[in-house]
């Protein structure tokens, strides 16, 4: 829907993931160990990034990264940052796995365009269109709410959610049929990895980087 | 062999109390806030009781402990009340594994000391793949919540049923069935989203006329194998179906939804959850009315 063009020019995307994973300082599993791939960035934010990449495209740069520990010693428990696209569109990533107010991991994506907004989570998809659009004939002007019951394809074997069931089935079928050009590619994994790498280094947007000779750090500029 | 124990036609579910709503996360959130204190939960259970619903089918969520305490303390008010425990509440275990790791999490749910505790400490029960022993102990740990209360049917949750069914760990169903019968005098119930496949396996294990709870609704929502296969299965196979998600999370209008379920032959029970007296009364009245026709 976001890609259909019905939203007009997309100018902002927000991807959020919250859940109750680390709720006290003491942790004894790989999740609290940076060397073993733990932390909210690798474990939670990756999913939120992957959704952004899929829905709105891969951001060109990130800024304003906050990676804070709430309880953990070795890893971050929350990740926030801005996302930037070459065409001027922007985004926000909000991830916190130390939030006990959520029963389980809860992910939500919102996309704003010049003709409206879409917000989607596990159960429903809320669409607001300023004007009806030919590419979404079933979705009129104003609000439309689609529930998981009508947007989810049935699976032949259900285990803890259609999405997981379909995913594991697809994975097994891919192995059986030696399919290498499936839904999920190394390309999309690499793209998510690249955004994560940008978050780790908080690389400024190339266009925003000042010319080298005049370059001064923030503190240097303050004191000059 | 004894005649099978009758199950009430209408069972009350618990999703609404624990912030589970298959339609809207926002609604789930609002419900979670509303039901954070026991009196709000009891008001709804009381309303259901007054409408003649005597059975509470509930997960082994931590918060069920306080509900059980209440019923133990007020037996005279609810002399005929029954619980149908549904175990396990998976997130309780998932969270513990997240925090403590697999073995430590398991240790925390099992009784302290004793031969098995010692075995587990050394990893022996796991190394021996002594799944039956561990499973029985986990069932006992879950059943502690319900001590002294009537629990004539004990269900295994679909997340476990369907995982075991999927990986072919069939023997667990027999262990579960036998243990709840021997230790609690209860009948085993199986919640699943894959009824036709499960029935094949239960048949193979010789578990006769099992209580199977699954989605049964006019939309075919989460009825794996398809609605026609379900209808045929209900009509022709020997089991005791309990219908859940009959409204498909509120998508189907109540009368239409219940009409459909009541039209299927041999459905023994319908489980539903609701938060308001009005909705409880309406749904119960519809089931009563349409079950007669």
Keywords:
heterodimer, A: 224 residues, alpha+beta, eight-stranded mixed beta sheet, 5 helices, 8 strands, B: 293 residues, alpha/beta, eight-stranded parallel beta sheet, 14 helices, 50% helix
Could you characterize the architecture of this molecule?
- The complex is a heterodimer of chains A (224) and B (293).
- Chain A has helices at 40-56, 148-151, 162-176, 186-201, 218-223, and strands at 10-18, 61-68, 78-84, 90-96, 106-113, 116-120, 124-129, 142-147.
- Chain A is of the alpha+beta class.
- In chain A, helix 1 crosses helix 4.
- The A-B interface holds A 20-24, 27-29, 31, 103-104, 106, 108, 121-124, 147-150, 154-160, 162 and B 18-25, 28, 32, 91, 94-95, 97-101, 104, 159, 162-163, 166, 193-194, 197, 219-226, 248-249, 251.
Brief digest:
The complex is a heterodimer of chains A (224) and B (293). By secondary structure, chain A is α+β, with helices and mostly antiparallel strands.
The overall pLDDT of chain A, averaged over residues, is: 88
Helix content of chain B: 40-55%
The secondary structure category of chain B is alpha/beta
- Any low-confidence stretches of chain A, pLDDT <50, length ≥5? 207-224
Report the radius of gyration of chain B as a whole number of Å.
19 Å
- End-to-end Cα distance of chain B, whole Å, is 32 Å
Largest sheet of chain A: 8 strands, mixed
State the major sheet of chain B: 8 strands, parallel
Q: Tell me the strand percentage band of chain B.
A: 5-15%
Secondary structure layout:
The complex is a heterodimer of chains A (224) and B (293).
Chain A: E1 10-18, H1 40-56, E2 61-68, E3 78-84, E4 90-96, E5 106-113, E6 116-120, E7 124-129, E8 142-147, H2 148-151, H3 162-176, H4 186-201, H5 218-223
Parallel strand pairs in A: 1-4
Antiparallel strand pairs in A: 1-5, 2-3, 3-4, 5-6, 6-7, 7-8
Chain B: E1 10-12, H1 25-34, H2 38-50, E2 55-59, H3 64-73, E3 82-87, H4 90-100, H5 102-109, H6 114-121, H7 124-127, H8 131-143, E4 153-156, H9 158-167, H10 171-184, E5 187-191, H11 195-204, E6 211-215, H12 227-236, E7 240-244, H13 254-263, E8 269-272, H14 277-292
């Amino acid at each position: 829907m976001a890609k259909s063009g019905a939203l007009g020019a997309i100018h902002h995307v927000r991807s959020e993931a919250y859940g109750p994973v680390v709720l006290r300082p003491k942790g004894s599993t790989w999740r609290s160990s940076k060397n073993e791939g733990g932390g909210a960035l690798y474990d939670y934010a990756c999913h939120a990034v992957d959704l952004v990449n899929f829905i709105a495209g891969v951001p060109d740069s990130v800024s304003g990264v906050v990676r804070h520990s709430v309880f953990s010693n070795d890893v971050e428990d929350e990740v926030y940052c801005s996302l930037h696209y070459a065409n001027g569109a922007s985004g926000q990533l909000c991830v916190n796995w130390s939030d006990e107010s959520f029963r389980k991991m809860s992910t939500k994506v919102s996309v704003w365009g010049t003709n409206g907004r879409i917000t989607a989570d596990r159960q429903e998809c809320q669409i607001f269109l300023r004007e009806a659009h030919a590419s979404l004939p079933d979705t009129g002007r104003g609000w439309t709410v689609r529930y998981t019951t009508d947007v989810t394809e049935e699976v032949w074997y259900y285990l803890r959610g259609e999405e997981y069931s379909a995913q594991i089935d697809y994975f097994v079928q891919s192995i059986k049929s030696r399919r290498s050009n499936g839904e999920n590619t190394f390309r999309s994994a690499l793209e998510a990895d690249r955004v994560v790498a940008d978050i780790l280094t908080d690389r400024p947007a190339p266009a925003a980087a000042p010319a080298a000779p005049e370059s001064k750090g923030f503190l240097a500029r303050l004191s000059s | 062999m004894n005649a099978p124990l009758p199950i009430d036609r209408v069972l009350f579910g618990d999703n609404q109390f624990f912030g589970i709503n298959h339609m809207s996360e926002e609604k789930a959130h609002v419900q979670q806030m509303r039901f954070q204190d026991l009196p709000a939960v009891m008001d709804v259970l009381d309303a259901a009781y007054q409408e003649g619903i005597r059975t509470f089918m509930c997960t082994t969520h931590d918060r069920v402990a306080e509900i059980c305490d209440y019923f133990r303390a007020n037996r005279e008010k609810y002399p005929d009340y029954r619980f149908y425990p549904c175990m396990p509440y998976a997130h309780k275990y998932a969270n513990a594994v997240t925090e403590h790791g697999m073995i430590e999490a398991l240790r925390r749910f099992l009784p302290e000391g004793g031969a098995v505790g010692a075995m587990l400490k050394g990893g022996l029960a796991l190394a021996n793949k002594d799944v039956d022993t561990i499973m029985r102990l986990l069932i006992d740990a879950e059943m502690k919540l319900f001590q002294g209360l009537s629990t004539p049917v004990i269900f295994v949750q679909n997340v476990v049923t369907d995982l075991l069914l999927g990986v072919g760990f069939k023997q667990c169903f027999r262990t579960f069935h036998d243990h709840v019968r021997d230790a609690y005098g209860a009948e085993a119930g199986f919640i699943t989203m894959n009824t036709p496949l499960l029935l094949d396996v239960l048949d193979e294990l010789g578990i006769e006329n099992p209580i199977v709870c699954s989605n049964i609704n006019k939309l075919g929502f989460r009825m794996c194998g398809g609605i026609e296969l379900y209808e045929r299965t209900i009509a022709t196979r020997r089991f005791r179906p309990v219908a859940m998600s009959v409204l498909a999370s509120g998508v189907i209008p109540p009368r239409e939804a219940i009409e459909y379920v009541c039209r299927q032959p041999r459905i023994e029970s319908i489980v539903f959850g609701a938060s308001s007296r009005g909705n409880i009364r309406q749904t119960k009245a519809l089931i009563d009315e349409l079950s007669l026709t």
